[in-house]
Amino acid sequence: PLVFPQHSLFLAFSKFGLLYSVRAHRNAAVAGPGCYAVIKFYSAGDASRAQRTCNGQRLFQKSPLKVCVCTKQKGFQQQALALNSNKCQELANHYLGFNGWSSRIITLQNLSGFDSENEEVGRTSQKGSVKYLCAVEVTLPIHGVRTRGAALGEADVENSE
Q1: What are the counts of helices (DSSP H) followed by strands (DSSP E) for the chain?
Q2: Do 49 and 67 meet the contact criterion of CB atoms below 8 Å apart?
Q3: Fold for domain 1-72?
Q4: Could you read off the pLDDT of 8-29 as tens digits, one per residue?
Q5: Which residues of 27-121 form beta strands (DSSP E)?
Q6: pTM, two decimal places
């Protein structure tokens, strides 16, 4: 199946930078045998470097590879999922260096129950909502930059003891 090309593509292209995803697909029946892949980098610069270096090369296959940079996602389903904390830290360490940044939580506050007067009609008493506000400060000491951000997280929960 496509596990081999997907793994080989990951190994070949991860040399240029952190990859968001690698997906290999079989060509359509009218296109003949083979496959195509969609490789997403976190950095547009890394993607451009990979394209310039790999286009027309035989990385792990017999025929030369055609590598294009796609700027429009037309025809592809775009999933906008938030990055988890570990992936954010991995990206920061990769691009800024292990000691090139720091973060601290300024506040973490439980906001559950503050909007009870705006409860949705029909919501049963067995279901509730948990809301937390988190404010964080990120510092890049080498550049003398400090910035703050805040987010509100919410999850539906069942009341249980």
Answers
A1: 3, 5
A2: no
A3: Alpha-Beta Plaits (3.30.70)
A4: 888 889 899 888 888 888 776 6
A5: 35-41, 102-110
A6: 0.53
